[in-house]
Design goal:
By secondary structure, the protein is of the alpha+beta class. Helices cover 50% and strands 12% of the residues. The protein has a five-stranded mixed β-sheet with strand order 5-4-3-6-7. A two-stranded antiparallel ribbon has the order 1-2. The longest helix is centred in the first third of the chain and has 24 residues.
Length: 266
């Protein structure tokens, strides 16, 4: 059977590896200062503890490392690999989850940085229905890491925001995840959201499903809601509850509340 056609799931190429490395460094700075009691404090979402988020990031680093090696070698990753990694990390103590996370997280970044250009060009990873090349692969890990970094940071500082470098990339790839991070709520229609830092305009169409696409060039003037790009990313990821909504979010509060119900996150 021939290889499945590569499915383009994300927009134009951006160098995500430095963003991942920065997120890894920031997370390490946060975690190294935490004692055992702090590791079992609620994170975001509150049903997760900080150590649970770190276990998720750490097990993810192990999985992404294996996917990268198999993708470079042209070898399929066994179906039972991911569950075995999750079981191993779930069995760790909170302290081991934290300490081991920092080790494998850094190891993954260092390994990816060492991949030569010719190897990057041939990397191919099958992930469910998605066929990923090098740039897609990096951006998926980047999105996961930057958002979960915030899940830990906000548990320690309620005013924490997404890192600017990550938000600037993520805001342009939200359309790729909006369909499975949302549910249609209320009457069909379109809501226009304008962002700052960077400035963008998006049309969110709610019907039988939910789509998120760039809006027309003049949409800023008729935006229903305006917010920082990092807040919009958190909204689509289900992380813009009223207690974590910055004052810079402006517009009809009822529309903001509806968008919170539409974007259930993951």
């Amino acid at each position: 059977m021939g290889r499945r056609r590569r499915r383009e799931i994300l927009p134009a190429m951006t160098d995500s590896l430095p963003v991942i490395a920065g997120s890894v460094d920031r997370l390490a700075d946060l975690v190294r200062s935490l004692d055992d009691d702090a590791l079992v404090r609620p994170a975001y979402p509150t049903e997760w503890r900080i150590c649970d988020v770190l276990s998720h990031i750490g097990s993810g680093a192990v999985i992404w490392s294996r996917l990268a090696e198999d993708g470079l070698a042209g070898t399929p990753t066994p179906d039972d690999f991911n569950p075995s990694v999750w079981a191993e990390w779930n069995a760790k103590s909170p302290r081991s989850q934290a300490d081991d996370c920092l080790v494998v997280d850094r190891r993954l970044v260092d390994r990816l940085a060492d991949v030569a250009d010719e190897e990057r060009a041939r990397l191919h990873v099958s992930l469910g229905p998605m066929e990923l090349g090098w740039d897609d692969f990096l951006r998926m890990r980047m999105g996961e890491h930057v958002v979960h970094e915030w899940d830990v940071a906000v548990a320690l500082d309620p005013t924490a925001t997404l890192a600017d470098d990550g938000a600037a990339i993520l805001v342009d790839q939200l359309g790729a995840i909006a369909g499975f991070a949302s549910k249609p709520v209320g009457e069909p229609g379109t809501i226009v959201v304008a962002t700052t830092g960077p400035g963008r305009s998006f049309a969110i169409t709610i019907d039988e499903g939910v789509t998120l696409e760039p809006a027309a060039a003049d949409a800023d003037a008729r935006a229903d809601v305006t917010m920082p790009a990092e807040a919009f990313v958190r909204l689509v990821y289900g992380r813009l509850d009223p207690d974590h909504t910055p004052a810079a979010v402006t517009g009809d509060p009822a529309i903001v509340d509806r968008l919170r119900q539409v974007f259930t996150g993951f």
